[in-house]
Specification:
CATH class of the largest domain: Mainly Beta
Number of strands: 17
Number of domains: 2
Helix content: 10-25%
Number of helices: 4
Oligomer: single chain
Length: 254
């Protein structure tokens, strides 16, 4: 409650200063025609936490960071802020593709980020990631989780998964800090309560809950829903929602 009140108070102050600067823009301009610092201050305050960009027609617009939106970057996005550190138990020279997804309780991907991880280079690095909900405001009737998948970068073989449900769904912003260990391998579950029609039964590394890791082209809790054709390159891996995972040495949406 204290944090929310402080945020509201800070936003109110910023908006009040915006109104003051906007209403006195012509006065400041008349008194300081050559004062570039004054004009720079006005433009900066008009965008709050964003960057002022001048268009080709001379109009200034605000370029907002992922955590804010609005014509003056005055509103906070409902989002998940994640700080992630990884360590590989396997060979430090092996490259992994790490996919971080914000999913709802139906398994739909709201947003995602992915990056290459090399243990010998990134073992002490902290990755800061923002995940946004697919709608603003978010659908409060749904539960959301952070799902993290690891693939080997060369062959795109599935390696491991983690699942972290988000508690206190009424909060507009979730902050999480995670340190994960990439295991040597993730064996198929011998006794699985799920029927994985086109996939393998696996367990999340942190919860030991069973789930179906679907084969390429299939989705659903039991891998029974066939994907519509999506134009990914033949050596990439399609995980749904228009997301293609590229092999090492390639990039792009497809």
């Amino acid at each position: 409650s204290y944090q929310i009140n402080m945020t509201t108070h800070d936003s109110s102050n910023a908006l009040e200063e915006n109104r003051f600067l906007s209403s006195n823009y012509h006065i400041l301009k008349d008194n300081n025609n050559n004062d570039n610092e004054t004009l720079k201050l006005i433009r900066t305050w008009r965008c709050n936490r964003g960057l002022p960009i001048r268009t080709r027609y001379g109009k200034f617009i605000c370029l907002c960071p992922p955590s804010y939106y609005g014509d003056q970057c005055q509103y906070q996005n409902q989002r998940v802020s994640l700080t992630l550190q990884l360590q590989a138990v396997v060979d430090f020279r092996m490259v992994f593709i790490i996919v971080i997804m914000l999913i709802d309780d139906e398994g739909q991907i709201n947003s995602y980020e992915h990056f290459n991880y090399l243990g010998i280079r990134d073992c002490s690095k902290k990755f800061n990631i923002y995940l946004l909900y697919s709608t603003q405001p978010k659908d409060t009737t749904k539960n959301y989780s952070i799902r993290i998948d690891a693939f080997t970068a060369i062959s795109l073989d599935y390696h491991a998964s983690w699942l972290f449900p988000l508690e206190f769904s009424f909060l507009p912003v979730h902050h999480s800090a995670l340190k994960l260990f990439i295991p040597i391998f993730n064996p198929e579950v011998a006794e699985c309560i799920l029927q994985c029609n086109h996939g393998q039964c696996k367990k999340y590394e942190n919860t030991k809950i069973d789930f179906c890791q679907c084969d390429p082209g299939w989705s659903g809790s039991q891998c029974s829903i066939k994907y519509e054709t999506y134009n990914c390159s033949s050596d990439s891996f399609y995980i749904g929602s228009g997301i293609c995972i590229c092999p090492l040495g390639k990039y792009g949406r497809q």
